[in-house]
Amino acid sequence: MTTSVSDRQATPETAGSGELRLDDVSLTLGDGDAAVTALDHVDLSVAPGEFVAVVGPSGSGKSSLLAVAGGLQRPTSGTVRVAGAELTGLSDKQRTAARRHHVGFVFQQSNLLASLTVLEQLLLPLHIDGRLDTAARTRAAELIDAVGLTHRTASRPHQLSGGERQRAGLARALMTSPAVLLVDEPTSALDRVRSAEAVRLIAEQTHERGTATVMVTHETAIMDAADRVHEMVDGRLS
Ligand code: ADP
Ligand code: MG
ABC transporter domain: which residues (predicted)? Predict the structure, then answer.
């Protein structure tokens, strides 16, 4: 289940400055009377190989933080750097490209496609891009092994447990060797033991592959595996 391969190492440009860096980021959603301050002057820096957990109640801005950090959403103000690129200065097209190259997302629901096997879930994006070669297949097999799903390679989502689906989602997110890994409430569908296992696996993969990882959750019981824990309240990070 382990690998000695380190996919990514700190480069001189990014070492020390953080592979993921948010400076004075605010996000307002909606307008007029309905306007909500989802993020309120957030600063966050995450180094390669660092596993940061953000814990906060529902509605505190955790998913907004990941959307902005991963370039899914432009902040109202502030800057976001991913793997040395300043996302807020890019066009939508450039930002999408940066996200696809440098960011891996794992969502609460694993968002696996019902008709595809575990292996096919990992290969689909490369297939669409016309880049499905032997190296990609080798990498997919290695990742499936790394998350302990070798025996499930040919299984479809309905044949998997909740924990296995979450692990397949993690393997899929790692296919592009992302600099930044963003994980939203990975354990909400899992029991306590499976939750602890899932978080340990994310920690292990973060350290082995050198991703700058942010996991957000409202569950405080599963924070032990994190290198650093922040609290989020009403869009403010402390
Ligand atoms: P969390 O993930 O911690 O539950 P969110 O980031 O989803 O928090 O939401 C933060 C705040 O922003 C909440 O008050 C939520 O109601 C609000 N919000 C989220 N999405 C939207 C939206 N599209 N339009 C307006 N308000 C939103
Ligand atoms: Mg959320």
Answer: 20-238
